Structures are given as structure tokens and as C-alpha cells.
């Protein structure tokens, strides 16, 4: 699809967050900061077929609000989003753009789309913002959901809403959350009634320090340099910050694993700070959330892929772990190899 020309690359803010986190309230406060004479645009994504949030935003001159209904623009075909965004840029020619994905969306996938080379002349991506509801941080079942974690991990800035309603248990939950996501070097901002200053989030998108490569076994077999950007599963990645490292694997959704073999493998690991994963197993979809004091696992909703992350500080060789992880597979593809 041919992209339209705009008057230079415009700042683009993704305001993400789980259901009920307060994204729209934050967006309302941000839009109040529009300078006179500028035109700002908002692209909103509703999971259902009836849009409501659009009616809560200003309809005055100087604002243009467009909705994409029915599904998640992060996960579904890129074409509707590309068309909607291209038309918005062409017709409105905004000075600044805000995108609010559905609370059931994966903003990391949206960010990957918008940082493709063909968007570079048109979009200047800013720090990705994820809003979390401070009054629900006491509920670890809520904060440990796979989608919740996905939205947090891609955030450059985490905005904690409803801080005036937080209990002592919520404040303790916030400290646990900050500790769990320490390797991601995020800024955390507390807000009341969505009062967030644009200057605090108008920062350039820093990109990811993540080094994404094919599986270690594949690298060993080829013995050649591999690209740092992999678009298809499976792949392995490592990222480091502030003395911590995260080793992770993303594997195709169609792969299935033996639950008890997988559990044994994860329980046998040593010298780690946190293990989190979600897998399709012969016992159904399972999440694993390990810290040194608790080895928690439970049934889970279906995920978009199989994945595991291990946070550690001591340098490790991961090939043996990966080999054993592959041996836990029980799906038909493994049997064919």
C-alpha cells in the first residue's frame, strides 16, 4: 500500500493498558494540553463492534478522533490499521497522534508495525506508555495474567492510575511489580484522575535492547552470523539492564509440551531470580510464575504463543536448557523430525 505524504514525521504516542486501567481518562487529560493552533489526532481501537470511548473525547475543532472496531489492531491483519492510519494522516495532517489500543491488545506487536521502515518518514514514535490500575495491584492473580505482563514489558513508561484509592496491600503490590520489571528500565509515574503531563511522556522511543536470534541449536548448526531481527517463531532472545539479564524463548502456538517434563525442567534450574512462562501442554494451557520462595503454576487461558523468560544475574550457557526444552515437546512435528 502506498503511504501518503505528511508534513514531516509527527510525534506518535501509544497509550496502552489492561481493561479498566484508566487509559481514556489519561488520554482526556493529555488532550487538554493541546496548544492553540495545532491539530491533534486520536486513533482508538475497540474490541467490540460499538464504540463508546470516542464519545468521551473532545469533538471540538483541532481534534480528530477515529475508531477501529471489532478486534485488536495489534494482533489482527495490519491492513485495516494501515488504511485507517494512512487516511488519518492524509485527511487531517495532525501535528501529534495518540493511539489507544484495546485493553485486550498486545501493544508490542503494534509498535513493531509502526516502526517498520516505510513508516519512518511519517511517524516519530514516542515512549510507549502502559497504564495500570493502582487500586488492583493487591490482586496477584490480576497482575500475573499473561496479557497484563505483555503490556508491562513493552512499556518505556508505566503510569499508575487511581493512586488515591490504593491500599497498603496495593502499595506493597506496586513495589513487587517494580522489582519484577526492574530489568526493563522503566519510568514509573503515579497519577490521580489521569492527570499526566505531556512533557513527562514526550520522550523518544528508545527501541529495545533485546538481542533476538534463532534458537541456539540452529545457530550452532549453521555456524554463521545471524540477523538481530527475527520476524517468525521460534526465536531466542537476551536483554540486559542494571546488572540483570533476561533469557527468553518464544515458540509457535501449535507446539505442545509434556506438562510434567516441563515442570521438572523449570524446577531443576538454579541461580535464577524469576521464571515466568506460558505453554500449551498435554494438561491444557499452563502458566508458570516462579520466584525463589514459591513455585506457582496454574491453568491459563489460551496464549498467542508458547514462551518462557528467566531473569538472572550470573552469566549462563543456555544451550543445554534449550535442548531439554525441545525434548519436552510432544506434538506431531517433533515426531516427524
From TrEMBL:
Signal peptide: none
Lineage: Bacteria, Pseudomonadati, Pseudomonadota, Gammaproteobacteria, Moraxellales
Domain CobW/HypB/UreG nucleotide-binding: from-to ranges: 11-173
SUPFAM superfamilies noted in UniProt: P-loop containing nucleoside triphosphate hydrolases
Protein name in UniProt: Cobalamin biosynthesis protein CobW
A Gene Ontology term for the protein's cellular component: cytoplasm
Top-rank taxon: Bacteria
